[in-house]
Amino acid sequence: MKVAIVAPSGVPYSVGGAEKLWWGMLQEINANTRHEVELLKIPSPEKSFWQVVDSYRKFHELDLSHFDCVISTKYPAWMVRHPNHIIYLQHKLRGLYDTYPDQLPTGLESVTTLMQQLPQGITEALNTILRLLKPETSGAYIPSSKVTHLFDALEVLQKEYDSLPVCSTLESIFVHPGPLLRNIVHWLDSAAMQPDRIQKYLAISQNVASRNEYFPKSATVHVVHHPSGLSVNEPTGKSYIFTVSRLDSAKRLDLLIKAMKFVVADVELRIAGDGPMLDVLQALANDDHRIRFLGRLSDAEIARQYSGAIFIPFIPYDEDLGLITIEAMMSGKPVLTATDSGGVNEFVEDGVSGWSVAPDVESLADGIRRMLDDPKNTERMGELARDKVAHISWQALIDALFAMGDDDAVQQRPSLVVAVTFPVFPPRGGGQQRIFHLYRNLARYMDVTIITLGYHDSVRQVLEISSGLTLVCIPKSYRHHQAELQLADELNASVGDLYAMEYIDETPDYVSLLSEYLSSADIAVASHHYLYTTIRRFFSGPLIYEAHNVEADMKLSVLAPDGVVTHKVEKWLDKVKSLEQACCMDAAQIVTCCYQDALRLSELYDHGTSEIISKCLTISNGTDLDSVTFADHSIRQRFKYRQSLEDRFICLFIGSWHRPNIDAVRCILKIARDCPEIDFWIAGSVCDYPFYSDSRDWPENVYRFGIISTEEKSVILQTVDLALNPVISGAGTNLKILEYAAAGIPILTTQYGCRGSCFEDGSFVWLSDMDDFAQGIIKLSQEDMTAWQAHLKSASEAVRKSYGWGDLSRTYFTMLKAWVSKEHTSDDNFGEHFCYPSDPIKVG
Length: 844
Prior knowledge:
Blueprint: E1 2-9, H1 17-32, E2 36-43, H2 49-60, E3 69-74, E4 85-91, H3 109-115, H4 120-132, H5 144-162, H6 168-173, H7 179-192, E5 200-203, H8 206-209, E6 221-223, E7 240-244, H9 253-260, E8 268-272, H10 278-284, E9 291-295, H11 299-308, E10 312-313, H12 323-330, E11 335-338, E12 354-357, H13 361-373, H14 375-388, H15 394-402, H16 407-411, E13 415-420, H17 430-442, E14 447-454, E15 461-466, E16 469-475, H18 478-491, H19 496-503, H20 508-518, E17 523-527, H21 532-538, E18 543-547, H22 551-559, H23 567-586, E19 589-592, H24 595-605, H25 611-614, E20 616-618, H26 633-642, E21 649-654, H27 659-674, E22 678-683, E23 702-706, H28 710-717, E24 722-725, H29 735-743, E25 747-749, E26 765-767, H30 773-781, H31 789-802, H32 805-820
Parallel strand pairs: 1-2, 1-3, 3-4, 4-5, 5-6, 7-8, 8-9, 10-11, 11-12, 13-14, 13-17, 14-16, 17-18, 18-19, 19-20, 21-22, 21-24, 22-23, 24-25, 25-26
Antiparallel strand pairs: 15-16
Helix pairs in contact: 1-15, 2-5, 2-7, 4-5, 9-13, 17-32, 20-21, 22-23, 29-31
């Protein structure tokens, strides 16, 4: 491929981590791949409002259609428009995001007020901008034409601005940083980074990936650390402390210099680099003969300084990645950093590869003394530090950027159409997550189209989510919607799938589009069986039945929760069962979430012939590993401290509006009344169940979060002490068990709630009968959780090894490919194959 790395050139020009990344990528791609790459840079000053706007406009207008692929890493380069665009994000304009001054407003109300003091011409131009900055709904799709419209409106606004004399009102509106520029930049970044415009999202660190508003909420972000390109030397005699960075306030070298005043050892601190704080730092260190400023050094000189250092202090605030950390560890040196130093702490494991201390003078001084007073331990930490960064290489980065799967998978692109009766994007509930993530990863090997039935008040969408994955959402017709509501009232249940099973023709647009896509499909998937008959009206090729549950059993629990089956309910249950049997018998392959479901389907429908079990492939539910961060006990304590919850033991339950989850919440409410000293957090759409609408039903120690964003869930998963799963009914498997395990949360569950996973009781999952659940919570709340850290870490690693959607989809593709290539024979028995370990995962 012809590849362009697109980047801004800072004004004034300086060399930093961004430049080293671009040079390294350029060298590695050209030297060691079949691709040809060029680095394209545009001068991008950003000292004023109009300079920032102009920089964004230049990249938006850049035509790179003569390249096959573009890669951007930094604002505003991702404004470039290209059908094959990869983002490897370093950071956004931080002064308008995570370091935006707290004292400044974020909304546009102040701008609206100030506008009243300006002439009509500029007021009209500003009103046009403000209207464009208000999408109809939060997170609304922004078409390219609207971006062009905004830049045209900004051009008109600038002409009006230039025609007016400078005044305090203008300065207040067009200040940088300020609310108007902040909203414009956020809007432009959001438009540029929409999932239909980006093929792949990567981030240089987990710290960057986790920052608020850095990525679309639906994005899957791959974290790939990159090296610096510095050629390191072997360690030599260790006689001084060395650090290097740009001398500005964010690097907090003033704290380091102040800390040295409390260190009595006669050891030299060498500081390399230049920057705006040089004079201030020199004055601060003026009376300390041990502190030397080396100025700007060449890479070779920096490598020599690393080699001879005892350790490397590096204490920036919320650093994106921290190449200095990687360089130091590559040189076999431990690093002293601060707990709020951001990406640095992805490498500095406190007490192992260095020390991570509180960002204050006393703690830093203590850290320096510990490094100096125990040279053998410091040397040992340096050896471990080198191991910590051994995986980081240019080759690993390039592989992540251009990974396309197996060569034969790229050459042969079968087409797959998936029919679903509910929307799956953005994915929230368990079924949505399974469909979205399984087929998004499958799209690495096949052209996948998911056709979903949307809410009646939504808009028709055809989204290119990623290369190979098209998501189509057709809203229900008004007639369909009204009739479905009537049936829901009659059956006192959610019946969207039941109504679609019988009356999908009430939304003719869905049927028409499904027919169109099926006409060129190699394989069709009935994700749930409710659209099986409709699929077979238009498609005679191999059909895959993806059985999320045993629907006959599931609908019985939904329509007759009290066990009383009325005549009307019985009629619908018979229809569900009859159609599920037909789908099972006709399907070329059946995909189940757990082998128990395969056995149950066989028991219900093939009457001992083993026909169904012979064509079942069990693909366990997985978890989106990129969105889950492992948090040990110390991290949980920090999160709790920030929320003033350090004295509370917190239990978590996440569930959708689904009968087993509704029953589980009833159980938790009862337990909560008996355990007032424990907090219970409940998240998900189960919170909206009408039975729970009266707040008087909720004890004071139970907190409802409702449907939560990926970012909110990440914080919750890193805060709570125990995850609960008091489930005694349902089918399929529990995605949340895997998510809890990946996050490092101990789990208390029923035996039924742990179905389909392979975890041993007492390792990090504790099994309990419902009658003993409250006692189990109390007992675990009294445990020393630090004693379980090795078990929890091992469990998280086991999940990441065996339950990633990428690996699960690969096995799925192996089966699908056999059908497309006609390699499958009647002797093949996919029922013997599993995508999860057949033996229990033993941890600790």
